Amino acid sequence: MKTIHFKTNINCSGCLKSVSPFLNAVDNIDLWKVDLENPDKILKVTLDNDNINTVVEAVTQAGFEIVKK
Question: Could you identify which of 14, 17, 24, 59 might form a hypothetical disulfide with 66, taking C-beta atoms 3.0 to 4.6 angstroms apart as the criterion?
Fold first, then answer.
């Protein structure tokens, strides 16, 4: 397993509710969490493999910005 950090614009509980179905549907994600207290709104993701593109695609499809830290 591998943990990756991303900078996002997911900044409130409503945003979390919007992105949740997209991230929950990604097969290689074991665990994910957004630190809303961090100014960079860090998304911490634990993956089964090294394919971070699935995370980027899911967040982008949900309508949010994402950049690997």
Answer: 59
